[in-house]
Write a structure and sequence with these properties.
Elements lengths: L5 H15 L4 E5 L6 H14 L4 E5 L2 H13 L4 E4 L12 E5 H4 L9 E5 L7 H8 L6 E6 L16 E4 L3 H6 L7 E4 L11 E2 L2 E2 L1 H12 E2 L2 H8 L4 E5 L3 H13 L4 E5 L4 H13 L4 E5 L11 E6 L6 H8 L12 E4 L3 H5 L23 E3 L6 E3 L26 E2 L4 E3 L4 H18 L3 H12 L5 H17 L1
Parallel strand pairs: 1-6, 1-7, 2-4, 2-5, 3-4, 5-6, 8-16, 11-19, 12-14, 12-15, 13-14, 15-16
Antiparallel strand pairs: 8-20, 9-10, 17-18
Helix pairs in contact: 1-2, 2-3, 7-9, 13-14, 14-15
Amino acid sequence: MMQPRPYQLDAIESLRVNIRKGIRRQILLSPTGTGKTLTSAVMIKGAADKGKRVLFVAHRLELIDQSVKTLQSIGLDVGVIRGNDRRRKRAAPVQVASIATLVRRIRPDADLVFIDEAHRALAKSYVAGVLEAYPKAVHIGLTATPCRSDGRPLGTMYNAIVQAITYERAIAEGYLAAPIVYSTPAPPDLSDVHTTGGDYDAGELAEAMTKGALIGNIVEHWQKYADGRRTVVFAAGVEHSTTIVARFVAAGVRAEHLDGNTPEEQRRAILERLSSGETQVVSNVGVLCEGWDLPACKCLVLARPTKSLSLYMQMAGRIFRPWNDVTPIILDHASNVTKHGLPHMDRPWSLEERIKNSKSDAPTKECSNCFARIAASARTCPHCDVDQKREDDGDGPRKLEEKDGELVEVKPPTEAEREEWLERAIAKANRRGLKPGWVWHAYEEKFHLRMPNDLWKRVKQSVAKSEAAA
């Protein structure tokens, strides 16, 4: 039987204290890989032992399987509500349900309701099928990223956040492994890709990735940096993913593809081959972002950009679990690190404030006639009206194209670098008469980090002294 860690027990006690205070809807926040499922299982065991009925809701097969396995491992009687799942057991006090099935069935009684990957909880299916269906129950949402792609805050669904552990502490105490991150500072040209629901339009993004927006050769960089590590690739679309797999196979690497339409048994077999090492690389499209756990997988290839901080952190978190002292490697060919910062840095979260997804400057190019800088997507120069040369797309079969470029290692800023920047920022605020809050927000935007309390106190004192002197 798995034993809960000290920080997990502390988080459970904090949740229970809030419940006693009358706070009945809470988020349990903990980084990917730090055991949110086990934490919830221990809490569920306590409730079930008191005769309470519990409902655990998830949206993917992998999440359901993982949850059932963990709950059963601590001696709980569990039923599954999902299609024709053979694990159905209506009398069991603990039910694990697929949200897609739950909204179409007669719902079981529940005193305590958990939602896995609770950043999805504002979707209509969750609001109507869970929140409104169980108005008297205690609700606890589990997530590593309490934000949505569209930026909407979760405060309409939950009233408090309990953070079990930070990335900094989890890494320092050996619960997570800090990755080495290689990325490109130059963002891909996505000027023709529209935004839908807070992220790049899926179809247009897949088109752009397949036709040449990626930076650097995926296979060559993998051969250079991965050192044979089992690897998961996140691609932009099915054709994009299968093309990446074909490139790996042509280079003699055992690689496979899976997506949302891959049959369940085939999906499990592919992941089992990756687990055993028979397969070295699995490229997927939107399947392994959440609820998939393979500590031995120690390399991540980001072959797709995203505007969603949540999706970025969910993808990256797949390889942070410690395994045989092997350092995780991230190969970011889409400049996600430049857009969002390192994935294992602690960030400020709020249930009330709208999360702003990072933005990068629009890509440009040089006019072939007047040499002015113009939008990369421009067919005609707005300054001299000369048509710009464009490569012929052709009608033949597509091939994956990549722009020349070398990924470089991205490291967290040192204390000295942050100190030097802060001195300049304080001086700038004083020169321009800016408020201390300007320095706070500039710090977070620069480093993608929450400003420590001691630095914030210093900023307020430094800027306030300047205002008083003026």
